[in-house]
Write a structure and sequence with these properties.
5-stranded antiparallel β-sheet; 3-stranded antiparallel β-sheet; 36% strand; mainly beta
């Protein structure tokens, strides 16, 4: 868990307990963004409905307590394959990360020589 606000220099992190409960105490009044991450799941901010969409900041008044700030993290997934040019020249490794229907392609150069994709790839 991570919380950020203009009034909170550098933000603040916390771990949840076995039940997933968390507390951020002694916070000044302000507008906060709360984000959650867990290995194997998609990182989300409070109020975020889909990946790559902005979350909803929480307004906290002086001395106010907010309860039931709940999250449901969707599982993440990875689809891997090979992206190659005709003839196999300038092949590049391509990892496509699929997050709830959104695809992102990350390319890393493998070199200048001919690289041929396997027929089963």
């Amino acid at each position: 868990m991570f919380i950020t606000a203009a009034e909170l220099d550098g933000g603040r992190g916390a771990l949840t307990d076995e039940a997933g409960s968390f507390d951020f105490t002694d916070l000044p009044a302000g507008r906060y963004t709360v984000s959650v991450s867990k290995s194997g799941f998609v990182l989300l901010s409070y109020g975020q409905r889909r990946p790559l969409q902005a979350g909803i900041p929480l307004q906290l008044g002086d001395g106010q307590q907010l309860r039931n700030v709940d999250f449901q993290l969707p599982r993440g997934s990875v689809i891997a394959g090979r992206d190659w040019a005709p003839g196999g020249w300038n092949a590049r490794s391509c990892v496509r990360r699929s997050v709830c229907g959104v695809c992102e392609c990350v390319r890393h150069c493998e070199g200048d020589g001919p690289v041929y994709a396997d027929a089963g790839a």
